[in-house]
Structures are given as structure tokens and as C-alpha cells.
Design goal:
The complex is a heterodimer of chains A (627) and B (208). Helices cover 65% and strands 2% of the residues of chain A. Chain A is mainly alpha-helical and 627 residues long. The longest helix of chain A is centred in the first third of the chain and has 35 residues. With 208 residues, chain B is an all-alpha fold. Helix content of chain B is 74%, strand content 0%. The radius of gyration of chain B is 20 Å and the shape is elongated. Classes of the chains: A mainly alpha (627), B mainly alpha (208). The interface between A and B is large, with 41 and 35 residues.
């Protein structure tokens, strides 16, 4: 099945990516599409800051402003942060545990394409009658009253991409449970693998409530049910519960992998074993556990009563404890280390005070009576941007620099990287620090303008100026990516020189089968152990060189997702009344989806073998291709 | 894994569903999927309980007045029996007795289809009474909870039938054994959910 690779044409490359089941290529797909949506969400953020730059601005109309803030939040959470983190999980986690691929390569591809089509569907709303406008939380009482199809794009798009994320979560869980190399016990797993594991468990248990809530909303809006319709006996608070039962774990789904990336960075660039590895692992698990018990702190002002508020307030305060444990472990990892301030390390060091600031304002809001004051003010906006930008986005940017050589075989420019960092970091604090005070001064969130007599002009102008700095930082990063790709200076296995875990023991980028021979793991930081023992190969092997079984590429995941995409348009226009074709579109889409699932089920797909001879040829410098 | 390898009951492993790496992955992955399904149904149950008997003022329907136990009891017995017959099928799968497995799966499918037929009859009956999907929050929650279960039954039946037809001529091997096993696992899960529906929706509904 395999052959000596030839230089591929553009069409062949596209086809290769559409059909690939290789976790490293799927990671690149996640990185590109997540990066694209990050830019879209960023442009929306800039529009918001332009509108708020001065009092009484009419740059955006009130209605358009609502659409933009909704899409900014939804895009950044679901279509930018999550896929960018999934990109690193896909690219690195299987390498860290010494696996040749994830447990379900086909489902990995399906997960990506579902996310991708869901995201495209959601964003098509801009061109098809208007975007959703009820905020990223989409509270039912507001969403049900929204005219047009914006909300339907939101519910259907997130349903599709949510299925994709759920599939990815199950896939990573099984991969980590079943595919670890010999000797890779749970307590020898790198921290990034651990956080991937816990975040995947959260995905598994948090996404179903969201999906159910979205279905209720779809039914209410498109098929006249009355889950949230009060005059029909419905209850709009059910949406809030379901959304936050998902929504709070979602915060940890985002931040835990970022914690994992930072943990790797602190150890690598302090040239030290992680301080308190065991405590870090258990703190991760505890955060995942508590993450499900705090959702109602988003709903203190709903009126659940003092008992419920007290319970959720306490739970929220408790969850700060494992997070604090992590912060101290990182500090003590740096302590006494031989530190090199590379770009990833700078991000990691900057992350600690930024994230702590976001955490502290979070604990402030755990005090329910105070939350009544802060609720729906710019204080909240400042808080969650400190957590998400100061934690997750800094983690993603750090991960991009750290793992770029492993994913692409080239090194991003350190010099430009530092420029990006300073612009982004200064811009971030300039934009959001001052918003705490705007909130305390009474400025409400989600309101499209403010009056000149309210005294918020200067602070808003400063905040908008900060956003420009962040945008410049991102543009420099793009320049960096383009220049690095054009220069194409190839790097070796361990370009940072201090890699500790298995991914740094193999070529950058790794061959498509990852490990010609499965490694044998002798302890935590296994590559470091081998290096210290003077093992030139970087690892010892658990098996002799032999044939490797690999999965076949397939277009079916793409087709299944395309079917869902088409069916969504049918569902969307179904109840307009004047569009009789909508039902046909719905049925055709579902037929494509279920038909291709049936094909997948009936047609045997046994994969293929790379022979020992091809592996030897490959080791000599030839290139074995997957198909 | 060689799909053409022939097995005898003696050479067939004790646990064919987890004898290969693919089988092991599917086994764990499917249990995790069932965890997600459990959360899904838990959410639907919670919503149903919150919206039970809730409707526009003057709504004539209530769980106590609407539901009748005899038909639902028969459905419960039929579905429970089908779970038992699927266990027999797996017993024969593990003994590498393909024909007996197919026969028991056939009986399982017949029982499942009967259940589904009765459920359609039941829904139709409610519709004739005027208790439609859009009648009230109560009706919406009822139909989505019980209907989601019904859709799972339909999917499980289609899965069994597709597997039986696809493998009718070639018998059991290490490639399809995990597939049969997972389908039966799914079937048990559907059955367990129904036990909860029978209790929470119908029994607690009639008692009031």
C-alpha cells in the first residue's frame, strides 16, 4: 500500500487533508481553522472596542452590536479556544504517551469535520439574514423573542460542533486509557497528557446537557414545543441551568489544557523536574471534579434562594484551593531552576500574575451578596477576560511557539515572538484591567453605547487603545508564521534542547507512524532520563522492529459532517411556511449522513501494514508515505 | 488481525470482544459513550420532572389522568425479555455458535420491534386525545424524553439488523465480534433507561 512519496500537487494535498486520519494532520486542520476563527472573533472584538471608544458612538447600530458581541463570545469559546487546544492535544498527547495514533483515527477525523461544518454554519448567519443576538449564553427568554434565524444558526451550529467535540473527548480518553506505551503508568504521564485526560472527561460529561438544552431551544423555536414558554407551562430557568451545567465545566475544559502546556514549559525551561508532580495531578482531578458543582454561581441573581446561593458560593471558594496548589507548584518549579527565557517561558511567567488576578476577582464574585453588585457589569467582563485571555489564550500562544517545531519542523522566530508577546501582553492588561473600574463605576455589559455625562469616556478610550496593541501583537505573529514557513529551516528532534518527554525524542515533524518501535518508559520525564543516561537514541524500545498496522484514509467523515450541515439548513427553514423545499433538504441531508454511516458500517476497513523493510528504508532517509 | 482466520469453539477466545486492540478500544470507548448518554437522559428526566403537569392555565391533561399502566407494563415486559434474549445471543457469540446467536438476535429484534409498535400506538392514542407535542410544556417534555428513548430503540434495531445481514454469510470473526457485543451493550442500556422511564414517568405519574 505504501510507496515512495512524490511531491504532491495542490489538489492532492487538499484531498489528503480531507481524508486524513493521522492525528498530526488533524491537529494542523484544527490549528488552521481554530486560528481562522480566532481572527474572526478578534475582528469582532475590534469592532466592539471601536464602538465603545467614545461616548454616544454610532459606528455600530444597537442591533448589529448585539449580533457582534454574541458572535464574538460564541466564536472565541467554541470555535477558537477549544479547537486550538484540541490541535495541541491531537498533535502532542499521542506522542507523549508513545502511541502511534489515537484510539479511533476515523472518529478523530469525524470530530474535526463536525466542528468545522458547525462553525461554518454558525458564521454563515452573517450572510443569511443576520447573526444570533441573544449573547453567547443565549438565555431563553431573550432568545425565543429574537426575530429572524440568528438563534437557529446558533443552536444548530453548536449542536453539530458539539457532537464533534464530544467525539474528540471520548477518543482522547480511550487513547490515554488504552494506548500508553509499556512502562507509561498513569503517574508517569506528562502533565499535558493528564490535563488532556481530565479535560476530555469534562467534555464527556458536560456537553450532553448543552446538547439537550440546544435541542429544547431548536424544538421551541422551530417545532413549537414549549420547554421555555412560560404561558404554556415552560420554564426559562431550565435553559440557564443546562447552559451553566455545561458552561462552567467548559471553563475548565479550556483552562486545564492550558495549565498542562504551562506545566511542560516550566519544567523544560527551568531544566527541572516539575515540583510536586503528584500534587499537580491531583489538583487537576480535583478541579475537574469541583468544576461540576459550581455552575449556579453564574445564577446568584436569579433567585434560587439563600441556601442554594450559600452552597454554590462555598463550592466556588473551595475550587480556588487546587488552583492555588498549582500556582505554588509552578513557582517552586522555577525556583532554583536554570531558567532560559524563551518565548514560551516568557508567556508562562506572564501567565502566573495575569491568571491569579483573574482568579482573585473570581473568588470575589463567589461572595454572593457582592455578586449582586457586580453582576452584568464590566467587572464581570474584566474578570472572565483575565481568566480566558490571561490563562487560555496565553497558553495557546505559548503552546504555538513551544510545539510549532514539533508540528511543522521549523522554529518560529524568537525575536518576532518576543515582539508579539510584549504587544499582546501590554495590550491585554491595558484593555481589561481598567474594565474592572468601569464595572465598579456602574457600566453595564452588553449595552451598545454610553452617555458623555456618565464619566466613562477616558477609561473606555484607554481600553480600546489596548485592543489595538493586542491586534498588532497578533499581526506580528502572523508575519512570524509566514516568514518561518518561507525560510523553512528544518530543526532536529529536540529543538529546544531541553525536552523532557517522548515527543522530543522523535523527528520534527514525526513520521506518520510516530514510533518505528514502541518505546519503553522508565520513569517520569522519560526522554530526560535517557538523555542523562547518555542514550543517544533518546529512548529504549519495548519491541523489535516489525510490521506496523495503520488505518486507511477515508472521505466518509467529511461526508457525514456535510450531511449534517445540509440537514441543518432544512431544519432552519422548515417552519417558515413559504419554503416547501426545506423538508426535502432536511431529509436529503439526514440521508447523506446516515447513508454514509451505513457505508462505513458495512464496508470492512482493516487498514494496512507498513513492512519492516519500508521502516528500514525510512530510517535510512527515504520517505515512506501512508497510502 | 486476519479477518479470514477461521475459528473453532476451541480456538475462539473467552472474550472475543476485547481480544484485539481495536476491540479493547471500542469496548472502553463505548462505555464512555454510555456515560455521556446517561447524562443526556438524566438531563431529560430532570427537565421532565420540572415540567410534569405544567401547562397553560386550564390544561385538561395530567400524568395521573393520562397514563394507563396495562399497556406500558406489557411494553416493559417485552423490552426486558428482549434484553434477556440478547444475553442469550451473546452467550452463543462467546461460544462461537453463529447460528444460535443470529436466531436469538432475530428474536431480540422481533421483541424490540413489537415494543416500538406499541409505543407508536400509545403516542397515537394520546394524539387522538388532543395531547400533542405542542399542547403544553408537559407534553413537550414527555414526548422528547420518551421519544428520545424510542429513537434509541429504532437505532438499536437498525444496528442489529445491519450487523445480522452484513455478517450472515461469513459468520463470526475477530473483526465483527466486538460489533455484536457493543450492539447488545447498547440494547441493555436502552432497557435500563426504559426501567427508569417506566418508574419515573408512568408509575410515579399514575400514583400522582
Amino acid at each position: 500500500m505504501s510507496s515512495i512519496a512524490q511531491k504532491k500537487g495542490f489538489g492532492a494535498t487538499i484531498w489528503d487533508f480531507m481524508t486524513t486520519v493521522d492525528h498530526k494532520k488533524i491537529a494542523i486542520l484544527y490549528l488552521i481553522s481554530g486560528g481562522f476563527f480566532f481572527l474572526v472573533g478578534g475582528i469582532e472584538a475590534m469592532l466592539i472596542r471601536i464602538q465603545l471608544a467614545k461616548a454616544g458612538n454610532d459606528f455600530l447600530s444597537a442591533g448589529l452590536y448585539n449580533e457582534i458581541i454574541t458572535m464574538h463570545g460564541t466564536t472565541m469559546i467554541f470555535l477558537a479556544s477549544m479547537p486550538l487546544l484540541l490541535a495541541f492535544m491531537n498533535a502532542i498527547m499521542p506522542l507523549q504517551i508513545g502511541a502511534r495514533d489515537v484510539a479511533f483515527p476515523f472518529l478523530n477525523s469525524l470530530g474535526f469535520w463536525l466542528f468545522f461544518f458547525g462553525g461554518i454554519f454558525l458564521n454563515l448567519s452573517w450572510f443569511m439574514g443576520g447573526a444570533p443576538d441573544a449573547g453567547w449564553t443565549n438565555y431563553a427568554s431573550l432568545a425565543l423573542a429574537s426575530e429572524g434565524h440568528g438563534i437557529d444558526f446558533y443552536t444548530l451550529g453548536l449542536t453539530i460542533s458539539g457532537f464533534g467535540t464530544l467525539i474528540a473527548g471520548i477518543n482522547f480518553l480511550v487513547t490515554i486509557i488504552n494506548m500508553r506505551a509499556p512502562g507509561m503508568t498513569y503517574m508517569r504521564m506528562p502533565l499535558f497528557t493528564w490535563t488532556t485526560f481530565v479535560a476530555s472527561a469534562l467534555i464527556l460529561l458536560a456537553f450532553p446537557p448543552l446538547t439537550v438544552g440546544l435541542f429544547f431551544m431548536i424544538f421551541d423555536r422551530l417545532f413549537n414545543s414549549s420547554f421555555f414558554v412560560v404561558e404554556m407551562g415552560g420554564n426559562t430557568i431550565i435553559w440557564e441551568h443546562l447552559f451553566w451545567i455545561f458552561g462552567h465545566p467548559e471553563v475548565y475544559i479550556l483552562i486545564l489544557p492550558a495549565f498542562g502546556i504551562f506545566s511542560e514549559i516550566f519544567a523544560i525551561f527551568s531544566r527541572k523536574r516539575l515540583f510536586g508532580y503528584t500534587a499537580l495531578v491531583f489538583a487537576t482531578i480535583l478541579i475537574g471534579f469541583y468544576g461540576f458543582m459550581v455552575w449556579a454561581h453564574h445564577m446568584f441573581t436569579v433567585g434560587l434562594g439563600p441556601t442554594a446561593n450559600a452552597v454554590f458560593a462555598l463550592a466556588t471558594m473551595i475550587i480556588a484551593v487546587p488552583t492555588g496548589i498549582k500556582i505554588f507548584n509552578w513557582l517552586l518549579t522555577i525556583w532554583g531552576g536554570s531558567i532560559s527565557f524563551t518565548v514560551p517561558m516568557i508567556y508562562a511567567v506572564a501567565f502566573i500574575p495575569s491568571f491569579v488576578a483573574g482568579g482573585v476577582t473570581g473568588v470575589m464574585q463567589a461572595i454572593a451578596p457582592l455578586d449582586y453588585q457586580l453582576h452584568d457589569s464590566y467587572f464581570i467582563v474584566a474578570h472572565f477576560h483575565y481568566v480566558i485571555v490571561g490563562g487560555v489564550v496565553l497558553g495557546i500562544l505559548a503552546g504555538t511557539h513551544l510545539y510549532w517545531p514539533k508540528m511543522f519542523g521549523t522554529m518560529l522566530s524568537e525575536k518576532l515572538g518576543k515582539w508579539t508577546f510584549w504587544f499582546f501582553f501590554i495590550g491585554f492588561h491595558l484593555t481589561f484591567f481598567i474594565q474592572h473600574f468601569l464595572g465598579l463605576m456602574g457600566m453595564p455589559r452588553r449595552v451598545y453605547t454610553f452617555g458623555a455625562d456618565q464619566g466613562w469616556d477616558l477609561f473606555n478610550a484607554i481600553s480600546s487603545a489596548g485592543a489595538v496593541f493586542m491586534a498588532i501583537g497578533v499581526i506580528i505573529l502572523l508575519v512570524n508564521v509566514v516568514m518561518t514557513t518561507i525560510k523553512n529551516e528544518r530543526v532536529g528532534n529536540d529543538p529546544w534542547g531541553d525536552g523532557r518527554t517522548l515527543e522530543w525524542a522523535i523527528p520534527s515533524p514525526p513520521p506518520f507512524y510516530n514510533f518505528a518501535q514502541t518505546p519503553l518508559v522508565r520513569g517520569l520525564d522519560t526522554f530526560w532520563i535517557e538523555k542523562m543516561d547518555g542514550n543517544k537514541k533518546g529512548m529504549i524500545f519495548a519491541e523489535p522492529l516489525g510490521d506496523i498496522h495503520m488505518p486507511n484514509n477515508s472521505i466518509i467523515p467529511f461526508v457525514i459532517s456535510l450531511g449534517m450541515f445540509i440537514a441543518s439548513f432544512g431544519a432552519l427553514y422548515f417552519l417558515d411556511g413559504d419554503k416547501p423545499w426545506a423538508l426535502a433538504v432536511l431529509i436529503i441531508g439526514l440521508l447523506i449522513t446516515f447513508g454514509s454511516m451505513l457505508v462505513r458500517s458495512l464496508k470492512d476497513d482493516l487498514g494496512f501494514y507498513i513492512t519492516k523493510e519500508e521502516l528500514l528504508e525510512d530510517a535510512k532517509g527515504g520517505k515512506t508515505d501512508g497510502h | 488481525m486476519d479477518i479470514n482466520q477461521k475459528y473453532t469453539p476451541q480456538s475462539w477466545p473467552d472474550h472475543p470482544e476485547t481480544a484485539t486492540m481495536e476491540g479493547k478500544n471500542k469496548f472502553i470507548g463505548f462505555w464512555l459513550l454510555l456515560a455521556a448518554e446517561t447524562v443526556t437522559f438524566a438531563t431529560l428526566f430532570a427537565t421532565y420532572l420540572a415540567l410534569k403537569d405544567k401547562g397553560p392555565s386550564g390544561m385538561e391533561f395530567s400524568a395521573a389522568g393520562l397514563f394507563e399502566l396495562p399497556l406500558v407494563f406489557a411494553m416493559t415486559m417485552i423490552l426486558l425479555t428482549s434484553s434477556l434474549t440478547s444475553v442469550y445471543a451473546m452467550y452463543h457469540m462467546k461460544n462461537h455458535n453463529f447460528k444460535a446467536m443470529q436466531a436469538w438476535l432475530g428474536i431480540t429484534v422481533l421483541l424490540g420491534a413489537t415494543f416500538l409498535g406499541l409505543e407508536i400506538y400509545e403516542f397515537n392514542h394520546y394524539l387522538h386525545l388532543g395531547f400533542g407535542f405542542t399542547n403544553s410544556a408537559f407534553s413537550s417534555a414527555f414526548y422528547v424524553l420518551v421519544g428520545t428513548h424510542g429513537a434509541h430503540v429504532l437505532f438499536g434495531l437498525s444496528w442489529f439488523i445491519a450487523l445480522m445481514l452484513r455478517n450472515a454469510k461469513r459468520g463470526l470473526n475477530m473483526y465483527n465480534a466486538p460489533k455484536f457485543y457493543l450492539a447488545s451493550l447498547y440494547w441493555h442500556f436502552i432497557d435500563v433507561v426504559w426501567v427508569f422511564i417506566f418508574t419515573v414517568v408512568y408509575l410515579m405519574g399514575v400514583i400522582g
